[in-house]
Predict the 3D structure of the following.
Amino acid sequence: MSGHSKWATIKHKKGAADKARGKLFAKLIRQVEVAAREGGGDPDSNPTLRTMFQKAREASVPLDTIERAIKRGTGELEGVRYEQVSYEGYAPSGVAVIVECLTDNRNRTGADIRSAFSKNGGSMAEPGAVSWQFERRGVIGVSRSVGEEELMLAALDAGALDIVDLGDEWQVTTPPADLNTVRQAVEDAGIKVDSAEVTLLATTTVELSNEADARKVLHLVDLLEDHDDVQNVYANFDIPDAILNLVEA
């Protein structure tokens, strides 16, 4: 179980996602816009746009808002031009962190991210310094109420790589390009998909068995995730349940 994934789930259940709904909308709209600019405005021929479109709809972003974002991306409407940029660094306790951003001002964003690291016990790193500890994968979340054999038959036959028990849900991993194919196969089997996205999964983890260390790392991750230009934060920490329960309390 990835501590970072578990922490994100806890925050979602506690309603933090609802409080940040406006910010979530803004981030998803940027992702849709950039996907349309880079691969075209047709979701059927642009898998990245299709994934972002589905993600935005699942977050209840209005359809007309998504369509305007696509048109800005394809140049049919004027808008700010965002570029993708990633930063790598270390959180306290040597936890590896990758921060993915969409920004209209690379210098401003870089300075903000560097400041967040340095003021909270972390440090920025050179490109490639920590990325080797992660691999890009499609990840599909399915309720544990679904039988493992039933899910395996649908997912593995469609090209899934693995199915892992995360306690309260199944995590199906796929090659990034096969995410939508596997998702469609799972749904065609009558299984409800709770989430689906292309993400980075840690190949090595740092266990945070001390409450103080866990709080420091989670504080930095929360600060980074709260930045308007930050789209995704990936970290390779793993927090035991007992420690995570203390932090949650």
Remarks:
- The beta strands are 83-91, 95-103, 123-125, 134-143, 162-165, 169-174, 195-202, 206-207, 230-235, 237-238.
- Residues 21-39 form the longest helix (19 residues).
- The chain is about 45% helix and 25% strand.
- The two ends are 20 Å apart (CA to CA).
